[in-house]
Specification:
CATH topology: Purple Acid Phosphatase, chain A, domain 2
Order of helices and strands: EEEEHEHHEHEEEEHHEH
Strand content: 25-35%
Largest sheet: 5 strands, mixed
Distance between the termini: 27 Å
CATH superfamily: Metallo-dependent phosphatases
Number of domains: 1
Number of strands: 11
Helix content: 25-40%
Shape: flat
Oligomer: single chain
Radius of gyration: 19 Å
Structural class: alpha/beta
């Protein structure tokens, strides 16, 4: 995974015969590593280097600058700080919401992708944690060893209302798909061996991308 950043990507999409365009701002968080606050627990001191509480301000500023935007997360959320370790040791009961999702649920994420560190605490804890997210997750290349089918939703196509440069409304059908590196089978062998297999990323993309387009993804 890359170092955490709020990445802004701009894409221009032809929207009508009069050459009006739709500008869509795609915002991404990644490698939050359960750092919700701007506080370094290892140093017992405030920090300006990380913390979703700081990034949330940037997200709101970026949204205010664009007519159309979506926010996604690229994984490595539940592990990486004393908060993550504490919650894994404490465990989650049915109905509990992991603190990272209590925070992320306030920011209107469109979708999340799983990162390799999501598996550090085992599949049972991961499923319980994901149940607290008020936004969907996708992953296309993790296969349930018992069923031979994807363990998670491979992809989603979301209808998103946007406005073009002339102020006219449109609906974009945005396709989201996620992958994890197959190396998780080595990195988290104790948690995953015999429970899942992980398919090659490129081969999986070649399988699902045409399917997404056939179903109308823009």
């Amino acid at each position: 995974m890359i170092k955490f950043s709020a990445t802004l990507l701009a894409t221009l999409i032809a929207a009508s015969v009069n050459a009006a365009t739709v500008d869509l701002r795609i915002m991404e968080t990644t490698d939050l590593h359960s750092n919700m606050m701007d506080f370094d627990y290892y140093k017992d001191a405030a920090t300006e280097k990380f913390g979703l509480v700081r990034t949330a301000t940037l997200i709101e500023q970026a949204r205010a600058e664009a007519k159309n935007s979506v926010l996604v997360d690229n994984g490595d959320v539940i592990q990486g700080s004393p908060l993550g370790d504490y919650m894994a040791a404490k465990g989650l009961k049915e109905g509990d919401v992991h603190p990272v999702y209590k925070a992320m649920n306030t920011l209107n994420y469109a979708v999340g992708n799983l990162g390799n560190h999501e598996f550090n605490y085992g599949l049972d804890f991961l499923h319980k944690a994901l149940a607290g997210a008020k936004f969907p997750y996708v992953n296309a290349n993790i296969i349930d060893a018992k069923t031979g089918k994807p363990m998670f939703t491979p992809y989603l196509i979301q209808d998103t209302r946007v406005v073009d440069s002339d102020g006219q409304p449109h609906t974009l059908r945005i396709g989201y798909i996620g992958f994890v590196p197959p190396q998780i089978m080595t990195w988290d062998k104790a948690n995953l061996s015999g429970k899942v297999t992980v398919n090659d990323i490129t081969e999986t993309a070649r399988k699902y991308i045409p399917e997404m387009r056939a179903k109308g993804a823009d």
